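We treat protein structure as text, and this decision shapes the records that our systems exchange. Because each token names a local backbone shape, the row as a whole describes the fold. For reference, a complete record is included directly beneath this paragraph.
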Amino acid sequence: MHPTASKLCQGASVPHIQPVLNRRQMLSQAGAGFGALALNGILAQAETLKTGLATQGCHHPASAKSVIFLFMEGGPSQLDTFDRKPLLNKLAGQSLPASFREPITAMGEKGSPLLECKRKWGRYGESGLEISDWFPNVAKHADELAILRSCYGEGINHSGGCNLMNTGSIIAGRPSLGSWVTYGLGCETEELPAFVVMKDQKKPGTNGVRSWGPGFLPSTFQGTPVGDGPTDEVISNLTLPTGIDEPRQRQKLDLIRKINEMHAARLPHVSTLDARIRSYELAYRMQSAAPEAVDLTRETAATRNLYGLNDKPTANFGEICLLARRMVERGVRFIQLFSGTGSGWDAHSAIESNHTKYCGSVDKPIAGLLTDLRQRGLLDQTLVVWGGEFGRTPMSEKGTGRDHNPTGFTMWMAGGGVNGGQVIGATDELGLYATESRAHVHDIHASILHLLGLDRLELSYNHQGRLERPTVNEGKMIQQLIS
């Protein structure tokens, strides 16, 4: 026994012990100690980011390995595509009935009459899903589709709506869904980006890079635009310059890397520097792998025809759909395809001509993508998502169009473990408001993450002392997708 303890047991007097720290010092140093714990976590996280893209991995068994998000920018009309409303045609030309709630501000001209749907509808597949004649080819895949008819959000205008659908917030600054997925799961290939963005037109789009940006996540996790350069090359500047061989290119990149690393060592908290180093290395690896990945001449004539590459109206979107399949085959994790880049689907007037054009440009390519993925055994592990930032109103605008409608619209999913041939949720009899099994955009994001094996609450990032999550602590898995 220690001598002091022995004296205590015997009741002997103990000399006064001078404390090493006073109370103020103890509290101060303990507080600093807690800060050190937080700092240690941040440094560990930073080290993880340097050693690979994947930071967390799956939280539960995944049914999907990758995502192809078909984004119809501008807002397609659910009333004329996947959500038939017979009452709308019966009341066409009349004002919105008093029994319906007053639509929110900026949705439809005041007192504007209801606009009929001029499409013909049919029931398809063993499931008998109702789909309009604007999507005759996609309709052949009815038994693979899970149609979400009760989607809603808060984005009234295109900027806010696109932000919400792509980042989970109507306010700019948060990471895109693809960035969150890349942050959590990384990529299965080192020769291609983990998150790829492709557009049907060389336009910046409604929000530009914000739609696929990393927000407060390190810059490494941002989307990589493909086919967005000033030339006709799918990926610009991929080939070596004339007179430069591979050893010389390697020497050049090694020097650039050393300079960048010296710069980054002085600014360890600037994630863009690490992203720059990674981008140079990725570009070097892509010079050998990417040309083969984007070489569509390797595809058969039958495959090119399947995607509509030989027809002018479908060639642009068909090409990026085919590229998406090739990238899924090579391990790319998240691919987002934009149709109507720059709000092309925004039909405030002349919806018949507008949607005839855009539906016609995507119907065959999307059907071709689903067919091709199925034939190659990839559909079960690839989640295909279709939708825009919102839908359209049953009330007319400018007599021949429809206004924005974020309170009730349609999206669909296929593959990736989703049970097809079903309708989930419903809007009211005129298609204005989501009423049954309502699915907020956060629920849609939570479901995509869940199918990839990610828990929307477990996937987090410490940003300025606050744990941030992809669905802003909201949303839930739409269980009917897999039940």
Notes: Residues 1-17, 32-52 have pLDDT under 50 and may be disordered. Residues 204 and 342 are 7 Å apart (CA to CA). The chain has three domains: 24-53, 57-235+297-481, 237-293.
